[in-house]
Specification:
Number of strands: 10
Shape: globular
Oligomer: single chain
Helix content: 25-40%
Number of helices: 8
Largest sheet: 6 strands, mixed
Radius of gyration: 19 Å
Distance between the termini: 41 Å
Order of helices and strands: EEEHEEEHHHEHEHEEHH
Amino acid sequence: MAGYIELFNLGKTYDTPKGPAAIVKQFNLNMPQGEVVALLGHSGCGKSTVLTMCAGLNPITEGGIVVANREIRGPGPDRGVVFQSPCLMPWLTAQQNVKLGVDRVYSHASKKDKEQIVSYYLALVGLGDAMHRRASELSVGMQQRVGIARAFALSPKMLLLDEPFGMLDSLTRMELQEILLCLLEKDQKTALMVTHDVDEALFCADRVVMMTNGPAATVGKVIQIPFARPRVRSEVMEHPRYYDLRREMIEFLESQEHKKTAIAA
């Protein structure tokens, strides 16, 4: 069945001195509009490879990716990306960093309209009073808020999140997870999130795609998350299935680790 986002038979192979090395192979995933999917797996299993192919930043070797009925051929404003590192221009203000993308995507809009878009999304991430501060003056958590505002301000059809909270302390991480979910629900964005955190996947995602270890990593298991939206963290953690789902994910990761150890032996 076709989805709003389709990844079909997706594969990535690199040439090495020892011959072709398949990093990802036969990766298939369909996502309806508004769904949040978390990619979970061990480090080096190909999660970020899948995400960068979706972003158009990494050429596809096999298969393809369709976003809203259009097969992608490279980067584009229909996909917003939030990386682990905010990747801001440190000499520009928060407002100016967000406005860089807005100016390109909304090239025919008036200056006032562009400024309103920028201000709106910075306010939503809690930076309404800090938008005129230089990025270099902001904390890492505040910089990541700018990165999230920048991605949403472009009004993408798909949001791609590459461990966006990996560099943050636990309290800031939880706060930004909740801000992200509010924005996703408000705009009904379709999102693919790479994470290594089981609890983050459980709280943020509608489905969790467990990836096998490489080489030739692929979809190993798909877990449906039953928690209603909007989500309240305390209610999620008190849900009768929370710890069963958490155990299921950890057991899958452990099984992959055992396979890796057996192959190495």
